[in-house]
Amino acid sequence: MTALLEVQDLHKHFGGVQAVTACSFTAAEGQITGLIGPNGAGKSTAIDLISGFKVPDTGKVRFEGKEVQGKAPHVISRMGLIRTFQSPREWPGLSVLENLILACFEPRRERFWRSLWGPSRVEKDHANEQLLHARAILDEFGLLDLRNERAGNLSGGQKRLLEFARIRMAEPRLVVLDEPMGGVNPVLGERMATAVLGFVTAGTSVVIVEHNLPFIERVTDQVVVMAAGQVIAEGPFDELRGKPAVVDAYLGEMPTYDDADV
Amino acid sequence: MIDYLVSVLTEGSIFAIMALGLNIIWGWSGDFDLAFYGYVALGAYMTLVLTIGPPTPPTTYILGLTLPFPIAVAIAVISSMLLALIVGAIALRHLRGIYFSIVTLGAVYVLYVFAGQFVPLFNGYNGLSGLFDPMGDFFGLDFSTYPFFYLGLCVVVLILVLVMVSRLSSSRFGLALRSLREDERAAAAFGRNIYAMKLKAYVIGAGIGGLGGALFAGYLSAFNPSAWSPVETIVLYAAILVGGRGSNRGVVLGVAVMVMGLQEATRYLPEIANQPSFAPAFRLILTGIVLVLFIRFRPQGLLPERRMRDKDPAGKGGAAVAVETPITGPSLDTGAA
Predict the structure, then answer these.
(1) Do A119 and A140 lie in a common domain?
(2) What pLDDT shows up at residue A252?
(3) pLDDT band for position A258 (50/70/90)?
(4) What is the model's pTM?
(5) Which domain holds residue A95?
(6) Is B327 within 8 Å of A148 when comparing Cβ atoms?
(7) Is the C or the N end of chain B the one with fewer CB within 10 Å?
(8) To 10 degrees, the CA torsion angle through B202, B206, B208, B213?
(9) Domain span at B302
(10) Which of A54, A76, A78, A91 to mutate to test the interface with B (most CBs of B within 10 A)?
(11) B-chain residues near A155 (CB < 8 A)
């Protein structure tokens, strides 16, 4: 199992607050890696640093062996690392279908001159295929009937699904999900768990930040526990359950997947 | 009467060209640019200094060439784009929203004062004049037929611009630009280079603005700081908002309503004795009232921006049919259910 994402000794402070201190972990290819920890542990900052939305003070982030720390978000995204945000960030004024189409970044088609002259026959065929692909994905997420709807009119849960559908459309090498279960009901949660597992089948590895531990237990292969800006433990969830440091910092009394709502 | 109609239509076409340029910057890319009229003015100034010949004392201005009108217009457009590249490169780097607007407002005021005070540039507050009936001699037109020719020219240019922006609007370039307007961080997360795209849109919009300015100079035959003030941009914004932000047809309609309709209608107000400034003031008040009403009751405008619409009823299989029809207007967030 090779490391797709390698975070090494990352530091970041805001004023006097040391948000991330000596954070190091790896996420393997083809796996789902959970990133858990109490509020203020530095998880979201770590995601921002990995995805280029914030620049680390020191430390290294390697994605597929290449150093990406301090690179612009779009550069990292084009390398195949796409992130989501804590609240769903759809493009509200665009239709659901347009949201999906735009998830595919195609620099050639978005050039000014090419757009002015209009698409070639090959590109038209490609656009048609893309539309069919988008429909298939929307169907999978139960959003097909809403495809012409303004994305801003969707419900909170539908927006979460739309975000997942966009990831499926973009087919990145790695997706970093920031609390995808926030405000999601149990039934939808089940669907999203299936979707996260589906990412791996589709060739997208996953790093997932989440407070919903039964969900983490269910989907992850590997879990990284952060507290006070540092990684305090790393390993499969079952192993971590017994570690006193992890229990002290975050877990407390553990619910199990069987008796909890997902 | 016919002369009057021709002049109104000519002016309307010119303003429609300008508004279509601003629509790229504000309607698609989402930047509330207050420097826009600066690019219009530079287009007008450059057209004049490139066509009216060397200055005769006491007037002073740069260049003073006698280039053919179309070439002068092309150079004017390029200079507007260059200026926009400089202003945009600074203002779009990190600033968004109101901060971006303030910087662009500052930029246009610098330009305005500079053009007024620095006489050797464009003859200061007295401005430039002397561009009579561009291309009229070439086509052998006299003063009675010339206005029709110039109207035709402006309409043809407007149609060309409209074709161009329509193609861009429905292209992936236009769609990607709108994603910046809707949510920039998400756009960056999906690989869009925000700064480069916004700058590109800004320069293209300013170029179209410069083109409008160049035609405006040919129409007025003169240009000076009293012919433009940074406030003029607001009229263009009013036209875009009323017509439909982001929608090309809407913008043209908005110009017809707000610039041609409203401005010309108030021209026939009864004059109030000793209050000659009442009519222009009332025009601005009326513009304001119409704006407020539209923002409150129809923020998407008269002809809302059109969305790509997938009409295939089955939703899968078969040939994909993407047709554009309206569904709703720009972001008036109804929030999550």
Answers:
(1) yes
(2) 60
(3) low
(4) 0.89
(5) 91-153
(6) yes
(7) N
(8) 170
(9) 231-331
(10) A91
(11) 336-337
